[in-house]
């Protein structure tokens, strides 16, 4: 199998009927970087910057942040990299963060963009480090756990201020800056067109989005197999997002665990996703599926089944049968 996947790296990333799909990888530490070449990923779709904070014993200094980001971009050698601003809080606690609070429901609590907008010094330092590390290159930046569009506007103000500051001191700035939002909170589903217009790209965090759409704690093993992330309602949610991206000409990608299983990656591509990001070990198996996928047939399958008022079998079973038949 490993041999087969190695051979596949040389093949273009296309469905059987010739539609290109970007297979990107998730990463978070310098040790992940060699995987970029080994996996054959087209880039890094999610760089979890909080990992550097989680393995440290105090807040990483600005210089250390900048150094890591520069190493990531150097290792990527021109392949696209999307950095996510620190996503701490919730299940990701920093023992040295003195401002942390006790929360009844940390997943619904003071985390990610909520926390960093309240502690703008953290965000400012990180953004400055990213801007400096990306001098002369493209910076793709995304915000985790966005709930309201005003959070994007606030983050943009902080970014603009840092850009102005650095240009005043004649720093080498990124050639372009693309700002994206992660779609993890269902409130955004009811303002999709506004969201698509407010950002340069959207990345679905399916781990958190599934948790909040189904009201099921993503870490609770008792419930881990209870609800299916290939069930009709969740697939309809994903289709709604992909359609909104297309309608507004805003690139949409997905970077949760869902992208890493061939059967669910197949479903995502059938629903309209043309870019998905997964753990590096999944790239080979997903690419093997991709090159065999008759996409037009799968789109026909979804047209017939996804909105049908009554299905004889669960969607997962129907999708599995579709895959088995081919
Ligand atoms: C997600 O929620 O799907 C995601 C990619 O972010 P994380 O798993 O880091 O919360
Ligand atoms: Mg998340």
Explained architecture:
Its main location: cytoplasm. This is phosphoenolpyruvate--protein phosphotransferase. With 326 residues, the chain is α/β, with parallel strands linked by helices. It is 46% helix and 12% strand. The protein is built from 14 helices and eight strands. It has an eight-stranded parallel β-sheet with strand order 7-6-5-4-3-2-1-8. Strand 4, helix 7 and strand 5 form a beta-alpha-beta unit. Helix 1 packs across helix 12, helix 6 packs across helix 7 and helix 11 packs across helix 13. The chain is globular, with a radius of gyration of 20 Å. The two termini are 19 Å apart. The relative contact order is 0.13. The mean pLDDT is 96. The structure holds phosphoenolpyruvate and magnesium ion. Magnesium ion binds next to helix 9. The site of magnesium ion has 5 residues, from helix 9.
Summarize this structure briefly:
The protein has 326 residues and is α/β, with parallel strands linked by helices. The chain has helices spanning 2-8, 35-39, 50-54, 62-76, 112-118, 120-133, 149-168, 192-198, 206-214, 232-248, 262-271, 280-292, 295-305, 315-325; strands at residues 22-27, 44-48, 81-84, 138-143, 176-183, 201-204, 252-254, 275-278. α2 links the parallel β1 and β2.
Low-pLDDT segments, ≥5 res: none
Largest sheet: 8 strands, parallel
Q: What integer is the average pLDDT?
A: 96
Instruction: Count the beta strands.
Output: 8
Gap between N and C termini, in Å?
19 Å
How much helicity do the residues have?
Answer: 40-55%
Query: Strand order within the widest sheet?
Result: 7-6-5-4-3-2-1-8
Give the overall shape, derived from the CA principal axes: globular
| Number of helical segments with 4 or more residues | 14
> Radius of gyration in whole Å, from Cα?
20 Å
Structure classification: alpha/beta
Which range does the strand content fall in? 5-15%
Order of helices and strands: HEHEHHEHHEHEHEHHEHEHHH
Query: What is bound: which ligands?
Result: phosphoenolpyruvate, magnesium ion
Family: Belongs to the PEP-utilizing enzyme family.
Subcellular location: Cytoplasm
Protein name: phosphoenolpyruvate--protein phosphotransferase
